[in-house]
């Protein structure tokens, strides 16, 4: 399906800012999991399908360390 | 949104809750005027770093936004160094710096101000920490060898103690109760975390009754009941914060008789029409926790600020704000995380024990998991937050993770 803005939306983690606070996991536990060492894993990978975008965006925007962002990869 | 003849959405309080409110108002599709009013001279910035990394030399504050975002992306008018002094709910007017500002809907997110030691004379070297300016002053004072006495072993006091210790200061903490953090963690877990101080070279005195401060112009020590004097170059007072609501006393907005916080309903409406509240200032019935509470943590300020704006711009679809509280606190490189409530019938360590460097404590209320506290268990804590949200039984909660350390006898 062609959309106006073609491209894949991907989650970007700034590892220098992430300390594993875990609010992202609390909002979208299928995408984000903090490990025993405090490191964040993107469980479903970086790419976000359109139907999941609202929830993932909420997780991204609620990071207290501002370690998360979304980018469009064409 | 039907309002008083195109009158703006006004948000009083330009910190995290206020910032999230204006962001959420725009994200909800509100296109009217928004005015964000803050009493400090700074754009909204993050407070948690002020007791942590900001106290290290050469760090910069973490601003939550920049002028360009507020002006160009969010189209929000910001008024800094502007203090609200009264509210007239009938006229829909708030007085700010002597000027009348009309609102269609108002969100109060004025936070809380540090409590001062009662009845003690003012001496130089006695500090509190809430604002960026406070933190700059405190940072200058934290130097190797300085004797710093922290009054109050709460989260702020403990984090300051940790930062000061790592900067080479000599730190003593004085706590009035028999264990720190009794309200936030309960006595058992409070005692366990208090061990972190001693293990990291910071003295903690509990059941400390402070009789007075020594010093003429500058503080030189803290005098305890019984006569002991703890020498101090700097005294940091961290005995809690009181909601900043004295300006609302004659407004008709219902305030809590306990602490002056603003009484809200589940949708975050105050007792007067078109006025909402969010953040450290607000009491509200938290449905999932079966209790009314006021929270002073980052997670709540962010979520509640957003929710209050959603209620304010679309009152007809306003939903209850219901959340499992979550906060984290970093001491001596260790992370403490707490979800839910410590008001419980029983607390049990299901992993680790008081001397281990990682542990999980669960709190039971009736048959329900009501809270969890962990030290250095970042993988586990959010699973418990979900369990509390789902009202999972105590039995099921105990079975979630096998114990990785034996429980101490």
Throw out a few tags for this protein.
A: 74 residues; globular; B: 409 residues; five-stranded parallel beta sheet; 26 strands
Describe the structure.
- Chain A is of the alpha+beta class.
- Helices cover 19% and strands 27% of the residues of chain A.
- The mean pLDDT of chain A is 93.
- Chain B has a five-stranded parallel sheet with strand order 3-2-1-7-19. Chain B has a five-stranded parallel sheet with strand order 9-16-10-11-12.
- Mean pLDDT of chain B is 94; it is low at 404-409.
- Classes of the chains: A alpha+beta (74), B alpha/beta (409).
- Chain A binds chain B through residues 19-23, 25-26, 29, 33-36, 38, 62, 64, 66, and chain B through 46, 48, 62, 298-299, 302-303, 326, 328, 335, 337, 377-379, 381-382, 385-386.
Distance between the termini of chain A: 15 Å
Please report the number of helical segments of chain A: 2
Beta-strand level of the residues of chain A, as a percent range? 25-35%
Q: What's the pLDDT, averaged over the residues of chain A?
A: 93
Sequence of secondary-structure elements of chain A: EHEEEHE
Tertiary shape of chain A: globular
Shape of chain B: globular
Mean pLDDT of chain B: 94
- Low-confidence parts of chain A, pLDDT < 50 over ≥5 residues? none
Q: What is the share of helical residues of chain B?
A: 10-25%
Strand order of the largest sheet of chain B: 3-2-1-7-19
Mind summarizing the main beta sheet of chain B? 5 strands, parallel
Strand content of chain B: 25-35%
Instruction: Give the oligomer, counting copies of the same chain as homo and different chains as hetero.
Output: heterodimer
Which residues of chain B form runs of ≥5 with pLDDT under 50? Answer: 404-409
Total strands of chain A: the figure is 5
Question: What is the topological layout?
Answer:
The complex is a heterodimer of chains A (74) and B (409).
Chain A (H helix, E strand, L loop, with lengths): L7 E6 L9 H5 L4 E3 L5 E3 L4 E2 L4 H9 L6 E6 L1
Antiparallel strand pairs in A: 1-4, 1-5, 2-3
Chain B lengths: L8 E4 L3 H12 L6 E4 L29 H7 L2 E4 L4 E5 L4 E4 L2 E4 L2 E4 L3 E3 L11 E2 L4 H10 L5 E5 L3 H12 L3 E5 L7 H18 L3 E3 L4 E5 L6 E4 L4 E3 L2 E4 L3 E3 L18 E2 L11 E3 L4 E5 L4 E3 L4 H16 L12 E6 L2 E7 L5 E6 L7 E7 L2 E8 L5 H9 L4 H5 L11
Parallel strand pairs in B: 1-2, 1-7, 2-3, 7-19, 9-16, 10-11, 10-16, 11-12, 18-20
Antiparallel strand pairs in B: 4-5, 5-6, 8-17, 13-14, 14-15, 20-21, 22-23, 23-26, 24-25, 25-26
């Amino acid at each position: 399906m062609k959309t106006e803005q073609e491209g894949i939306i991907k989650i970007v983690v700034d590892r220098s800012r992430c300390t594993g606070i875990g609010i992202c996991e609390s909002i979208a536990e299928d995408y984000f999991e903090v490990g025993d060492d405090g490191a964040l894993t993107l469980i479903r990978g970086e790419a976000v399908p359109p139907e999941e975008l609202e929830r993932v965006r909420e997780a991204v925007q609620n990071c207290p360390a501002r370690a998360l962002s979304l980018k469009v990869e064409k | 949104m039907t309002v008083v003849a195109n009158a703006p959405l006004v948000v009083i309080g330009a910190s995290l809750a206020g910032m999230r409110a204006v962001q959420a108002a725009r994200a909800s599709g509100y296109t009217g005027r928004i005015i964000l009013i803050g009493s400090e001279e700074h754009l909204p910035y993050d407070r948690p770093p002020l007791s942590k990394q900001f106290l290290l030399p050469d760090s910069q504050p973490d601003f939550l936004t920049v002028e360009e975002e507020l002006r160009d992306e969010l189209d929000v008018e910001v008024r800094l160094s502007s203090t609200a002094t009264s509210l007239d709910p009938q006229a829909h007017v708030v007085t700010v710096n002597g000027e009348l500002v009309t609102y269609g809907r108002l969100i109060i997110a004025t936070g809380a101000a540090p409590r001062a030691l009662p009845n003690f004379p003012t001496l130089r070297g006695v500090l509190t920490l809430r604002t960026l300016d406070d933190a700059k002053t405190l940072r200058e004072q934290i130097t190797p060898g300085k004797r710093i006495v922290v009054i109050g072993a709460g989260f702020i006091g403990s984090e300051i103690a940790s930062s000061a210790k790592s900067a080479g200061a000599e730190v003593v903490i004085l706590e009035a109760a028999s264990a720190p953090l009794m309200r936030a963690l309960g006595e058992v877990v409070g005692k366990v975390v208090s061990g972190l101080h001693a293990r990291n070279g910071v003295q903690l005195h509990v059941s400390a009754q402070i009789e007075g401060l020594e010093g003429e112009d500058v503080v030189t020590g803290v005098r305890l009941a019984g006569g002991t004097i703890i020498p101090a170059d700097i005294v940091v007072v961290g005995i809690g914060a009181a909601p900043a609501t004295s300006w609302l006393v004659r407004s008709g907005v219902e305030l809590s008789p306990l602490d002056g916080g603003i009484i809200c309903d589940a949708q975050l409406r105050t007792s007067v029409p078109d006025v909402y509240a969010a953040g450290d200032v607000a009491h509200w019935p938290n449905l999932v926790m079966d209790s009314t509470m006021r929270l002073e943590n980052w997670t709540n300020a962010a979520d509640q600020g957003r929710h209050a704006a959603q209620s304010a711009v679309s009152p007809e679809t306003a939903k209850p704000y219901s959340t499992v509280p979550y906060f984290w606190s970093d001491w001596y490189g260790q992370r403490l995380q707490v979800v839910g409530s410590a008001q419980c019938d029983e607390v049990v360590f299901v992993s680790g024990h008081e001397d281990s460097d990682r542990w999980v404590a669960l709190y039971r209320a009736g048959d329900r998991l009501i809270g969890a506290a962990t030290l250095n268990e970042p993988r586990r804590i959010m699973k418990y937050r979900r369990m509390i949200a789902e009202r999972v039984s105590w039995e099921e909660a105990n079975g979630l993770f096998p114990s990785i350390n034996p429980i101490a006898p």
